[in-house]
Amino acid sequence: MSAEILIEAIAGMLHGLRHVAVGANSPIPASAALLARHRSGGRMQVSLLSSRKQNVFTDGGKELFDCAAQGRIDAFFLSGGQIDGQANINLVGVGGYPRSKVRFPGSFGSAYLYFLVPRVILFREEHSPRVFVPKVDFVSAPGTSAPGVYRPGGPHALVTGLCVFDFDRERARFVLRSVNPGHTVEEVIAQTGFEFDVPDHVPETPAPSAETLAILRGPVAEAVSETYPAFVERTWGKAAA
Amino acid sequence: MSAEILIEAIAGMLHGLRHVAVGANSPIPASAALLARHRSGGRMQVSLLSSRKQNVFTDGGKELFDCAAQGRIDAFFLSGGQIDGQANINLVGVGGYPRSKVRFPGSFGSAYLYFLVPRVILFREEHSPRVFVPKVDFVSAPGTSAPGVYRPGGPHALVTGLCVFDFDRERARFVLRSVNPGHTVEEVIAQTGFEFDVPDHVPETPAPSAETLAILRGPVAEAVSETYPAFVERTWGKAAA
Amino acid sequence: MTDVLTSLDELAARVPDGALVAIPPDYSGCAMAAVRRVIARGARGLHLVGVPSGGLQADWLIGAGCVGTMEAAALTLGEFGLPPRYAAALKAGTIAMKDATCPVIHAGLQAAEKGIPFMPLRGVIGSDLAANRPDWKIIDNPFAAEGAEGGDPILLFPAIRPDVTLFHAPRADRNGNVWVGVRRELMLMAHASRSALVTVETVEDTDFLADPVLAAGTIPALYIDAIAEAQGGAWPVGLAGEYAADRAAIAAYVEAAQTQEGFDAWLKALETEAEAA
Amino acid sequence: MTDVLTSLDELAARVPDGALVAIPPDYSGCAMAAVRRVIARGARGLHLVGVPSGGLQADWLIGAGCVGTMEAAALTLGEFGLPPRYAAALKAGTIAMKDATCPVIHAGLQAAEKGIPFMPLRGVIGSDLAANRPDWKIIDNPFAAEGAEGGDPILLFPAIRPDVTLFHAPRADRNGNVWVGVRRELMLMAHASRSALVTVETVEDTDFLADPVLAAGTIPALYIDAIAEAQGGAWPVGLAGEYAADRAAIAAYVEAAQTQEGFDAWLKALETEAEAA
After folding, report:
1. Taking residues A63-70, what's their average pLDDT?
2. Cβ contact D106–A61 (<8 Å)
3. Nearest chain D CA: its distance from A25 CA (Å)
4. Do B69 and D114 touch (CB under 8 A)?
5. In this predicted model, what pLDDT tens digit does every residue of D106-135 receive, in sequence order?
6. Residue-level pLDDT at B241
7. CA dist B241 to A204, A211, B28, B222, Å?
8. In sequence order, which ranges of chain A are alpha helices (DSSP H)?
9. 0.95 cut: is pTM over it?
10. Is the CB of residue A189 less than 8 Å away from at least one CB of chain C?
11. Whole-angstrom Cα distance, residue D142 to residue D159?
12. Which of B17, C32, C244, D169 is the most exposed place for a label (fewest CB within 10 A)?
């Protein structure tokens, strides 16, 4: 159920968009995008970059980035080895650079897509002070930019195993939107290394309806299994895969 | 015979090159390139831009220009409604701009390829003071550039219905190399609106050998006829076409 | 999502007055039938960009009074010479001409494809093209070697972002994907434009992207706003691999279009004949 | 003219010490068999560029001591995590890492393809990538609207012009044309490089360029310096549409390569087995 809650939370942020793209190694965002597409009656375009079938690009590795710069991608997903309270993300390493104590794979397209895709959803399931830090050790991509920097895009929300944050771009600050079932505001505060706003009333992150669960376990599981068979089996069992 | 002399003159300038490209509406340069390719034993690449068979490009209209900038095109052909003594060419119009008295089609890629292709051969069959002027009315592409301007390419020679000029890039000046059979140095001087150097001894432009004529009338005529059937029939008769 | 339209008039309605419209040259894939509907709807003030040159369709649009500005590296009808209504409009000063050079038009579209405001390119410096284009700039190459002689000047020019790209292609599939093969300038135009309108010889009940060999020459529907079937839609300039140019029809046009009256009569006869058919 | 070579050793001999070598990511088309011959010949001081990221082949070359500098947007073995010899070399400081971002690598190659010294791109400003790349510059956009707030800063970076591009593709024809389908980054790499070396599953006795459908996905021989047949040449990372990754072999590699001794033993066993076969 915990994956399904995250999928539902993300899918709700994609409502009404024309084109959502999802990078590699992202089964939960991919499932959310496919759920949103299902709800749109197939009108939403979803590009799964690690899929052959759900990927229409025909102009090589540059096309995703060009497509984003043309304004044709409405939402994308990024993560971070570290993420800080200003939504800066670190995909490079911890403890010095270039000889980092812990090295991550690298920034990929984050330094670009974070600027150009209007609705970037940060997703990191592990919610711990190790990940959510006061200040990242290396800025792969900054959460906000100075006035005058061309930036039609940026962070929209942060979805974790514990909660959902909105990001207030004006104030460069996260605002707790909801806490996932089985967790508390206090737990979120304890596990988060950066400061954020906590409204007086913080609802629970909604669980998906029975209708949504049927869609997830049916057409979404089937479409996702092309790329993420292990995830589908773990989440929805062999039957779905 | 007059076309064959021009073809022979141009082909001699292409000896040893790896890749020669020829633009549209250029049957004589195309024939010369194909003759040079024949002499190279097929090792020379010839790209005829108006041909489907003799054109290997697969990346759209930009590829010719990118290919030239990569240094992969050794020779190209340009012409001009006007050409002056500094090898400036005018493909735009005569008598004012933009409301010219006589308008030509336009500069095409000349302003670019003239800079980037090492050996640009100017070809204009009509040799008259109307074409070869002291100063062009509009510079589509300049013959020479100031020091410091990136320019690996430029004019190599000018072939006309009357003669062949070499171009001295250092001195920005044409030098008469040879006069076509049936014509004289005096005639060239009278028909040329710009000044140029005349060496003490000006040989006759060599006529092609019997062996060359056989190649022209055989494989070259056959290859050229895909794109220029009317030219082949006019020059070599119906049998060749 | 690509809209599959049932008439060329619906397609033509999507070319608004004053739009920056990119069109291919006569040897690429020209939506001649659709252009006639753009003329019929009375489009005005179009800014045409020939990628990189213009031919018969530009002359039709100019002759019909649809064009305010023309940007191209050249305008030509090949063996038939200068397009007659273009030549007349230039003389009369009724259109503004922005002379360019082929690689700048291609690279200007690439800048739009990449969402960058400008692109650098070698060459061009010292030509009267640059002298007559206040929108082009020459700067010293910021990456020149220290103490480079003359500062290493280089041309910069702005992105060309068409409002509409209009072309004709051999085939579309049921999802609105359009196969153009090696005519990649059509893909570049679609990528670079806000809207791409395409006529095709035939819409096939298949999915080009499911076939890796066809996919390689396909513009995804993502970039295509609307398609309409138009068999023979490139007449009279022809469509490579499908049908040749109708040289007699082009010759007749050129003869007729030497005067505005001749052009008007030619156009009226053409459309009267089409309605009768 | 493309040379058709009869051995991978001949191909490997064309990768000189110190060369700037462009390689595709594991999911594109990796010449793994050829990379083993580059290792066998003892290449040193290579500057690898992952287009845009690196994977197993980069780790093999790093483990074998062939690499001086690595430029990439990331290095990863996907589900198998960070490439182990890369991680060790970074820690030990035995390779220099130039961290980049995907679109800058693609656009840097496009700059080389266009023969321009630099390319602009949006984004990136304010990241520590830019702060650690002295070869990147930020300038005020020369085309910004008059009085634009903040000067409209924009990133410029130099062209990436590889000495060698090395990849594996499904098919070549008898003329040396190489079919890559939608894997256009391989075409960009070939265009941008001084030399392109390609291994293929099979050389077919045909001409891809004579078929308009195949031509659309073909790199012309003009850009290909040498090809060699290598059936299964992308093992163990696999080749899309042809064969899948050998996950067991990759897992075994990752386990072995946690130490230099383990890597050396793994490599020796692999080549001993290959010689015996």
Report:
1. 98
2. yes
3. 8
4. yes
5. 999 999 999 999 999 999 999 999 999 999
6. 47
7. 83, 73, 15, 6
8. 2-12, 27-39, 63-69, 110-116, 185-191, 210-215, 221-225, 229-240
9. yes
10. no
11. 20
12. C244
